[in-house]
Input
Amino acid sequence: MAAWPIEISMESFNEAWALEGETFWRSVFEMHKHKMEIKSPKIAIGNLEKIFSATFTLANTKGFQAMSLRDLSRETGISMGGLYAYIGSKNDLASVIEGVLRNTIEQIVGGLSAHNLEPLQCLRAIVYGEIFAIEKLSPWYYFCFMELKGLPREQQQQTLELELRFEGILMDAILEGVASGQFICDHPKLLASQVTAQLQQWHLKQWKFKLRDIGKQEYAQFVFESLLKCLEYSGVGIEGSNNTAAANSELP
Amino acid sequence: MAAWPIEISMESFNEAWALEGETFWRSVFEMHKHKMEIKSPKIAIGNLEKIFSATFTLANTKGFQAMSLRDLSRETGISMGGLYAYIGSKNDLASVIEGVLRNTIEQIVGGLSAHNLEPLQCLRAIVYGEIFAIEKLSPWYYFCFMELKGLPREQQQQTLELELRFEGILMDAILEGVASGQFICDHPKLLASQVTAQLQQWHLKQWKFKLRDIGKQEYAQFVFESLLKCLEYSGVGIEGSNNTAAANSELP
DNA sequence: GTCTATATCTGGATAGAC
DNA sequence: GTCTATCCAGATATAGAC
Output
């Protein structure tokens, strides 16, 4: 995984961060190989993907606690005993999943601050970037949201802190825009949490968006434009020429 | 439970719907007394409250599946055997909770349509009313949101349908306002789902709002004003004299 | 590395005394 | 109506063969 691309669009994001395929699963393997008995990457990576994917299928439909390791064994085609070569325990499996996701998010979010983008571009990058990341890692996000209660206190805490940090970045961009006169906003904290809520919907309410045939592109655009309306952004500001349409122009 | 008050404010809402105290728990008892062995209301109501409340405490911190009936027995002070005089089975308990909540919401939501309010007043009623209801029934909402996966398919379906119906009401009010020229809105469906998301946050993210010391009044107002901004509502429309400030004036 | 077989335990549910 | 004692299915986890 590298860093945020300079030109931010879903395509360039796709190239910059490997959130699927061989590359991604290899990095997952690297992240917690110290916890498993299997040392050969060649064998481990394939089985890891099987185990994680099956866990998502099962846990995201019936719940992690309700899912038994027998279910998981059946779904993956790996025997009960075999599973324990990859995971320390059932609870450990959930912990690892949370760890990998948080680690990944932290890299992405951390990379954002480095860029020192203009407020408007920064907000756009966050919204589109997060929708993109959630889209790719949807089962991971959903799993962690729903199973957070079952994880160790420390991980619960860290998840909350990450969410606060994320909103902090949003808030800073908003405040900077307010300071420079581009935006008007009475409740930056609440507006930031509104955006977080909308982004989280993208994995929490997949059923709804599928039912209504709403794509990620359309949704991200809505969230961003809705945010601009709440910021009473009219397209005039320090950059003068920018307006909503222009801000989206380079996206498909 | 009666109906929506004519003058809609949190206080009048409070009087119109009994969502707490003796009256509320009596109605809960009425709703599923046919499923329990205990016939005397006098004894049953108190124990029901104990059982439900304890379930929320336990399930909302460790998860319903992770909570054992032995935990519940300890927390309520009722023996294992005793519990089974009140609930048919562990799963039944979750089902009953969902049933009671949905029933209650349906009464409240159903009462809304009856009023034939002006779009602006209708939206305001929905936002403030829902925040109020969620505030009072917070553990119920949270429980049903998090444990939905574990419930019978039929109940899952009905929950989704209720959410769609709720958003339908929001959408209709928005569209009516657009038709009459008060509002401008390109994506009524998405805007309605934005409002739903914000309302659900009120129980999903209690930790955040407590941490930031944000009260329900302040939050409801933010959601409503944010909605108006997205509707590009300027206070001029069929009623002429209305503006945002006026629309909120009668609330504390 | 992977499997089968098994030890051990937890938790839902019930029977029957009081 | 409520409790104690008990049954038993099903779950996690491990030992040891291949």
